[in-house]
Amino acid sequence: MRRIIAFMLLLSAPAVAQSPYGGGGMGNGTGRSGMGDTPRPTTIMDPLPSPEDLAGPAIPEFVIDRFELDTAEGKAYRVAYDSFMVATKALRDTASAVRQHIDQLWQSGDRESARAYFPMLRRLGDRLAKEDDHFDDRVKKIFTKPHFKDYKDWRGDQRRQAEEDRKERMKQLTGTNPGR
After folding, report:
1. What's the average model confidence in pLDDT over 84-100?
2. What is the largest CA-CA distance in the chain?
3. Cβ count within 10 A of residue 132
4. CA gap 139, 136 in Å, rounded
5. What's the CA gap between 165 and 172, in Å, rounded?
6. DSSP assignments along 33-54, one per residue
7. Mean pLDDT value across residues 139-148
């Protein structure tokens, strides 16, 4: 895990260099462009990806049972799922390692260092969200229309719940209510 973190630090130097203070790293680091006042932390409003976001789509056994897929649909979903999880494993592992590192820093009281990793985790989460959307496009071709409609409705409910969970976690982390 230390190798992953070290590698990510190397790749994320621009993100780490961004100030958690207002001003985005411009001026003298105070967020006031040369005013010389003490830095004032700004809240981080965008919620971080949840562990569920990083885990990927639902496992085949659950999907087959939940949506009562026939044998052909079940096999096709399993193949798509396995292929997808192999293709996104490195990205998911990296995002999970960053998330764990943030949690460790936060628990140890090093809030500033933890916040420095927020942009990296958000970028990784955005990439994974796009990959998950591509997976859903593939599922659309596998499922019958009624099964896909049920799946899409279920995914929407899951995403709404995850968004509420993310907001609650960010509220706990930052002491503010995120705007999303």
Report:
1. 96
2. 68
3. 17
4. 5
5. 11
6. SS--PPP-B----SPPPPHHHH
7. 95
